[in-house]
Amino acid sequence: MSSTFVTVDGNEAAATIAHQTNEVIAIYPITPASPMGEFSDTWSAQQRRNIFGTVPDVIEMQSEGGAAGAVHGALQAGALSTTFTASQGLLLMIPNMYKIAGELLPTVFHIAARTLATHALSIFGDHSDVMAVRQAGWAMLASNTVQEVHDFALIAHAATLRARVPFVHFFDGFRTSHEVNKIAQIPSADIRAMIDDDFIRAHRDRAMDPERPVLRGTAQNPDVFFQAREAANPFYDVLPQIVQETMQQFAELTGRSYQLFEYVGAKDAERAIVMMGSGVGAVEEAVEALAARGEKIGLLKVRLYRPFDIAAFVATLPPSVRKIAVLDRTKEPGAVGEPLYQDILTALAESGRLATCPTIIGGRYGLSSKEFTPAMAARVYEELNAESPKRHFTIGIIDDVTHLSLKWDPEFSTEADDVTRAVFYGLGSDGTVGASKNSVKIIGENTPLYAQGYFVYDSKKAGSITVSHLRFSPRPINSTYLIERAGFVACHQFNFLERLDMLQTADPGATFLLNSPYSREEVWDHLPQEVQRQIIDKKIKLYVIDAIKVASETGMGMRINTIMQTCFFALAGVLPREQAIEQIKQTIRKTYGKRGDAILQRNFAAVDAALANLHEVSIPAEVTSVMRRLPPVSTESTDFVKRVTAMLLDGRGDLLPVSALPVDGTFPTGTAKVEKRSIAIEIPIWDPEICIQCGLCALVCPHAAIRSKAYPQEAVAGGPEGFLSLPWKGKELPNHLMTIQVAPEDCTGCGVCVDVCPAKSKSVVKHKAINMEPKLEHLERERANFEFFLELPELDRTQTNFDTVKGSQLLEPLFEFSGACAGCGETPYLKLMSQLYGDRALIANATGCSSIYGGNLPTTPWSANADGRGPAWNNSLFEDNAEFGLGLRLAIDQKHDYAAHLLAELTSVVGENLVVPLLTAPQITEADIREQRARVAELKAILAASQDPRAEKLHQIADVLVNRSVWIVGGDGWAYDIGFGGLDHVLTTGRNVNILVLDTGVYSNTGGQASKATPRAAVAKFASSGKSSRKKDLGMLAVSYGNVYVAQIAMGSNPAQTVKAFREAESYDGPSLILAYSHCIAHGINMTTSMTHQKDVVQSGFWPLFRYDPREARTGQRSFHLDSRKPTKSFKEMAMQEGRFAMLARLDPKHAEHLFAQAQQDIDEQWHYYEQMAGVERGILDELKEAET
Amino acid sequence: MSVDLSTDYLGLKLKNPLGIAACPPLTGDLDMLRRLEAAGASMAVLPSLFEEQIVHDELEFDRMFEDHAESFAEALTQFPDLHEYNTGPRDYLRHIEAAKKAVSMPIIGSLNGASKGGWIRYARLIEQAGADALELNIYFIPTSFEMTSTDVEQRYIDLVADVRQSVSLPLAVKIGPHFTSLPNFAQHLVAAGADGLVLFNRYVETDIDLETLKIKPDLLLSNRHEARVPLRWIAIMRDQLKASLAATSGVHRMEGVLKMLLVGADVTMMASILLKKGPAFIALLLEQITMWLEEHEYESVEQMKGSMSRGNCADPSALERANYMKALISYTMEHPSPPT
Question: Does residue A100 belong to any structural domain of this protein?
């Protein structure tokens, strides 16, 4: 039958089947599987029905473990149920997976296979997660392409119902889950035909039901457990046949035929690769190319991995094959070989085929989405030809340590000439990826051509660079690797030319489309030498358009996507120009139609204006430029940075050999400063004439890109011309100057500092003490100023008052230039913490935004001071962060006890006059700390000179005698949901840890899913009709323990209270919890005014400020302090300033009114409760009584 | 003897001259509309559809969805993909339809456009939604020193002509009082196609927050003394202007309504006083007006309408400069010079 073709990514391809074939969908966000849950939630919110005519119930749980538990329950009660996950999420499901398989419950878990966190987290794809569940008793079906994801999702759902064995249906994270490809859509009727009602009836008949009660989940003893475990064997024995028959049924309906194992290549092949996953696309291309040259090679694709059908495998393998390379996309350290390798070896041995196929080798490839290309596959075939091939090898990296890697020929290419290949370099904010996806859709859905899009993002949240790889072909596209040779290259941001080698992939004669502020006559002289050379040598055709100008004139702001897309179609010639423009407009209508007429008209105008501004540049014969591409890091960087970090920044990390990388994931800190991204268009410029030295600008800066420093007058001598100073006003620092200085190339231009600046000119009100001005006008001067500013001596930490905002901002930040969003609401808190305690802090950081901008390579914002001291940082997992942080504290306390013990034993060596203060001197003030450090230094000197063997032991741990500040940091997804159990437990331990919750009220890092911190009435993913329940009052839960210091703070509303809370929390010798209001892009607010907006947030009572200090209770004082005033604004007044709430008012005004009223009631009740806690009510009553008497 | 309170406005037959001006808490709420009609209101102007606001909302929501989209691998979007959210005029048009179903009195749509295309497009949509008439809520604050008063007036006139050509429903134009020669300007508006004028528009005014030194837009409720401005201009224009005239701004009491009718208003429109006193106040007002008319032996509203227009009043110069002189004299008479 004729098929409808759609262009979708792997996640959507899976979700469309899952949503149509299930009734209960329990989900939890995790990259790269989140979109499957999001699609399902959106469709159910839109009342889209499944094939049974009902709307699936989609429910978000507190963790993947919770989702698996809910699915288990739903299955036991007779529903059809599914979930989606990846990586750590799958690990959290394992306990339930054993149960589900043990109870023979039919379900399919769709897995976007992703790397497991080991020495590092990685969001990218490999099979380490699915391989970790291969023993759980589930069938495992591997999809290699987007089409297969769509097809196998249905085959799995159909087969599980018949077989009763649950299925893991997996496909490669990102490479398949996020690849957009043209596929044949399965009609609903075919889906319905595949799902057999008899099997559903049988499933329902087995359900728990008081009408026919049964007992499951028994506890069994040695007498029967074993036998019962074996009782299910027949179900596994017949499963491969069931899957094959289901595949046959599917083929009859759709015409697409699949086998448990599939072979491609020469019929008389002697060498074969066995593998599964997206990598087969690359191998298949290599096989085609090499077989065409007469090489006797083939590829065997494993589709049903569990149960492994030896007979089917052997039957599929050509009898001529004598050598096999098994490729595993996972690593199992210490094993005889990787899992698939071992399976194949066993299968051949058991089948007796080893005799005719004696050479089996195993290789690892593609960990964490490492590129895997036809060239690499070709090298593996070549290795099989070797006299003694490496039995265990790696491919895709250079292993100069254990020398396992195979060296491949990068020139080997299978890219066909009739395939259009285009690469687009853009900024995240300019819409390049969105337009590229639309281009794939336009061609995929309107022409006979097949289309593929794959998108690469960097790890920054502000100013991120995206690279879109598009292929258009007359044949289905299974090239599962990045484009290596492109006939079309587009650079959407002119300044990329200074940093990126975009023309490396350009084919000779390729077209290069450049968004340029310079005209066709001027542009040549503004290209770096390297770019000019490539253009001349490769005879590249260069076209320019000032897309920013066109966008500005058509009301598109900085969004140049449709303009550049129009130029692409005009130049690439994939479609006739007129037809292309009409299709672009159709897509615009489809994509933006619901946003309103104004948006449509602006996009149309941009399309119409594009071609008139597109010009070809005549290319001179010679390189004329005097400019060179910028080096990735300065020459003054450390050796590691120059050797390793620079390569990552230059986009050449793939070339680093194994020896360049740390063996245990340990990296130096303080590297963000080498990465001068220079992404701001405007930067804050200081006017000392107006400055009141409040320190607010430095406090709120999310990137530590504006700083204040006080220094002796004489220090300024020799400063660059234009370096500005102001006498320090405070009496505590006589004869000192101060400066507010911008780091011009680290600033993101968010403007928050200027927005909060309270000092205005008396004669021109709009002129403040700092003002946003064009960066290019100030760059040179401010660059020199900032360099000098850094050289100025840091203020003696004993000389400033930490308790004030301005005092705190004279301290050096040890968290700087992160990749967080411009205007981020979280990072100012971390920076403040680093200023106050960074030189003695250990940080346990939950996975999330803060772990990404804090610890995602290539650089880290965590840094050290001139003494080399700074925060020691680690991210363990998402769910265990509180426990992990507690472990840090336990180790410190234990080491301290051991040091005290050794000190006591060594009193005669060290001297009592040093031992006593080392163990008893207060360490409260900065002066106390300094004195203790001096004592420790003295101690170490004494110990170093001692021959006592205990001296060396004490020397090793002596530093722990200086108080350590343990910080447990994470977002609300961790604290309120997945990590709540651990956090709750840690609070009860009484141990001295400081827990900082950066509360955005949403899962920010994974794209705005609702958490239990999401406020009522807010629209979020998984709460698209507005969250109906109120936010959990985590603060009061902690207060209820009585021994936990708790503060709820909002820096933008009350910075002094914020500083006070940090000071009190850290000084409290017990658990402390700080709930920090953190605005976020997921709130739909103007990020420039986000800090001042916090005033409204607090004034409405939405986020009351309070502190609870158990120390005061111990002295009979009232320990709960309500630090904000009675609400003076309504919730609605505040909420309508935020898109997350305003959206609901647009979506469903009546429902919004209802939820807004409830939210107001929440606030009123909470405030009433807080007033009681703070004794405000009692105070008023007491006053009344006093007045009466 | 019963008094005929009916009046004609924009060709619409109204049961009495008490209409409701555009005001979100009053005419933006269906329940309130029902209560107003039950109390006796004869027509209602719905709150304005502001094109600028629609465009602003569309851009803001678009920005919210797009600004951080497709930038970061783990979060390709930040918000759920909503298919049904209100950008554009959808809810406004639904409100017209609902209002027409909820009450039987004439419902007048109100439009404030920002572009020529917008004025025409939204006027058509309002007509299609079933409004009985359309009120163009036009205001323009010239800030350019190059723009002449003629330029400003021509903008209004062109706009009225454009809308007139696009829709066939009755058209009223609501303007402010600040035109150099209001009668001449009004005549041009009528010539361009206006069926009536609504006098006068009250604008959001500018204030300053002394603590933050920020401009603070503010709209105060009208007071009854403001009625004197439309009173004068309706009296002056009534005789020669072949168009309906609606009086609004400061019509708060029975006396105010009667005075407006005397100088020639076809209808009065109220808002501020109803916000203070509630919809039932209309019934009280209607009773008072009826009583007054009966006491003074008027047969109908039509009879008294314009009976004190410039041409019909005994002392037309009192509406001109002499009025000012008289006021001064009466002031000094009532308030003798303070003792020296």
Answer: yes
Q: How far apart are the first and last CA of chain A?
A: 93
Tens of pLDDT, residue by residue over A804-860, are: 999 999 999 999 999 999 999 999 999 999 999 999 999 999 999 999 999 999 999
- Number of independent structural domains in chain A: 5
Are B226 and B327 found together in one domain?
no
Q: Identify the burial level of B174 via C-beta atoms within 10 angstroms of its C-beta, where 0-12 means exposed, 13-18 middle and 19 or more buried.
A: buried
CATH number at B182 reads: 3.20.20.70
B316 & B281 share domain: no
- Residue A1185 reports pLDDT greater than 80: no
Tell me the mean pLDDT in the region B112-136.
Answer: 92
> Nearest 10 degrees: CA dihedral of A549, A554, A560, A566?
-110
Contacts of A1040 (CB under 8 A, 6+ apart): none
B81 — contact with chain A (CB < 8 Å)? yes
Write down the pLDDT at residue B67: 87
Question: Does B267 lie in the same domain as B228?
Answer: yes
Minimal Cβ distance to B87: which of A428, A434, A595: A595
**Do B68 and A46 count as a contact with CB atoms less than 8 A apart?**
no
**b or e along B186-214 (b: 16 or more beta carbons within 10 Å of the residue's beta carbon)?**
bbbbbebbbbbbbbbbbeeeeeeeeeeee
A114 is catalytic: yes
Note down the domain range covering A270. 261-406
Same domain, A569 and A439: yes
Q: What does the mean pLDDT of chain A come to?
A: 96
Indicate if A530 belongs to the active site: no
The rounded distance, in Å, linking the Cα atoms of A792 and A812 is 11
Neighbours of B169 (CB within 10 A): 19
DSSP secondary-structure letter at A1116?
A: T
- Closest CA–CA distance from residue A1086 to any residue of chain B (Å): 9
8 Å CB contact of B74 and A123: yes
Q: To the nearest 5 percent, what fractions of chain B are helix, strand and coil?
A: 45, 15, 40
Is A67 part of a structural domain of the chain?
yes
Can you give B130-199 as a three-state secondary structure string?
CCCEEEEECCCCCCCCCCCHHHHHHHHHHHHHHHHHHCCCCEEEEECCCCCCHHHHHHHHHHHCCCEEEE
ipTM: 0.92
Specify if A630 maps to a domain. Answer: no
Q: Is residue A810 part of a domain?
A: no
* Domain assignment of residue B296, yes or no: yes
- pTM of the shown model: 0.94
The whole-angstrom separation of Cα B247 and Cα B267 is 6
pLDDT tens-digit profile of A434-488?
Answer: 999 999 999 998 899 999 999 999 989 988 999 999 999 999 999 999 999 999 9
Question: Which residues from B are below 8 Å from A115, CB to CB?
Answer: none
Q: Do B295 and B209 sit in the same domain of this protein?
A: yes
Strand bridging mode A139-142 / A304-306: antiparallel
Has A1030 been annotated as catalytic?
A: no
Nearest CA distance, B83 vs chain A (angstrom) = 7
Closest residue on chain B to A43 (Cα): B81
CB pairs under 8 A between A and B: 141
B31 touches chain A (CB under 8 A): no
